[in-house]
Amino acid sequence: MPIKKVTSHDVARVAGVSRTVVSRAFSNQGRVSQKNRELVMRVASQLGYAPDAIAQSLHTGKTGFVAVVVNHFHDLSDLEFFDRLVEQLQNSNRQAVMIRLEGIEDPASYLKQTISYHVDSAVVFADNISARTAKDLFRIATPIMLNGLAGDALCDALNADEAPSLQQLAALMAQKGQRQVAVLGGRSSAKGEQVRQQTFLTHAAAQQLQIVAQLSGDYSYQSGFKLAPQLLAAQPAPQAIFCTADSMAMGVMDYIRLHTPLRIPQDVAVYGFDDIPMAAWPSYQLTSVRRDISAMIAAIVQLVELRSSSPQAAPQQVTIPTELVVRASC
User: Fold this and answer.
1) Which SUPFAM superfamilies match (predicted)?
2) Where are the beta strands (DSSP E) in 54-137?
3) Same domain for 40 and 100?
4) pLDDT tens digits for 36-74?
5) How far is CA 48 from the centre of its chain?
6) What is the mean pLDDT of residues 82-93?
7) Residues 286 and 301 in one domain
8) Count of the separate structural domains present in the chain
9) Are 43 and 11 spatial neighbours (Cβ–Cβ below 8 Å)?
10) pTM for the full model?
């Protein structure tokens, strides 16, 4: 025999209040006294009642769902970042709906076919989704873009100010006499990657550094390990290798130590980007550009809250600082 589901009617009857009071107590919308709120919560706990999220969304127009659209999870920096982002969204009574687009030939068509639920906000990291596409597909006024494709002010945009740290990195190479430099980047199609590499190359040229090799990986440890031989085979030989992700830099370092007689940093220095926790491990001690992840996540959650309370508010442009963290790899 099926167990009877406890409803708001039951809570209202036992508590001796109206259903409206029960609804207001759980939704935090409308006026309800603290005494009645505590009474409703106590009775609901005793009866084992939990509000129906779908029913609530029909009433309030809010689902509590936040779409988080990504390319992949190859980069080790993704692990910490998305774990903390999901945690903070949950702490604000929201649920992340993770959507991975790597390998999808037509992302817009794929999303159109698979999105069968309403979301309150969309946070877009994937570099193959424009602001206008996100706006139309998710049926929201202002998506939150972190892929460098801010477009024509249709969206909120959050970017890291990487230029000062990359300028310091190039200057540090010059100071240490590392004039021949190899660069290992990520996906060349990614707007953020293009800007990062071009910014570094501009500052490298200003320091009169010579770029002896420039290859593209996929941000993974494996791609750094695999492409390291090609970087090291450049002529003249690189005195420093800059990787646009720490995971690739660690792959390069392990290849050097396992398969060459070269010493880090005496023979070749290695630099990374993101300053993931593993960069500080004794086995790596990787010099890296740090983005303030806490500030980034706080800004994302604030934008999500803004879009929930004021969907038509003017688009916001948020910039997060970076810093160069110098360790023994250089």
Assistant:
1) lambda repressor-like DNA-binding domains, Periplasmic binding protein-like I
2) 65-70, 95-100, 121-124
3) no
4) 888 888 888 887 776 655 455 445 456 678 888 887 777
5) 36
6) 88
7) no
8) 3
9) yes
10) 0.77
Q: In which residue are the tokens 């690739």 written? A: 248
177, 239 contact by CB (below 8 A): yes
Q: Which of 198, 194, 176 is nearest to 270 (CA)?
A: 176
Q: What is the mean pLDDT of residues 11-38?
A: 80
**In sequence order, what are the residues at sequence separation of 6 or more whose Cβ sits closer than 8 angstroms to the Cβ of residue 254?**
225
Assigned domain for 185 exists: yes
Which tokens go with 204?
């490298």
CB 107 within 8 A of CB 139: no
Q: Are residues 150 and 167 in the same domain?
A: no
- pLDDT per position as a tens digit, 186-229: 988 777 888 899 999 999 999 999 999 999 998 999 999 999 99
Preceding peptide of 2 cis, ω within 30°: no
Which H helix or E strand runs over 129?
none
Q: Quick one: 86 and 206 in the same domain?
A: no
Terminal Cα-to-Cα distance of the chain (whole angstroms): 70
Domain that holds residue 281: 162-291
188 and 173 within one domain: yes
What is the SS3 assignment for 317? strand
How many whole angstroms separate alpha carbon 272 and alpha carbon 279?
8
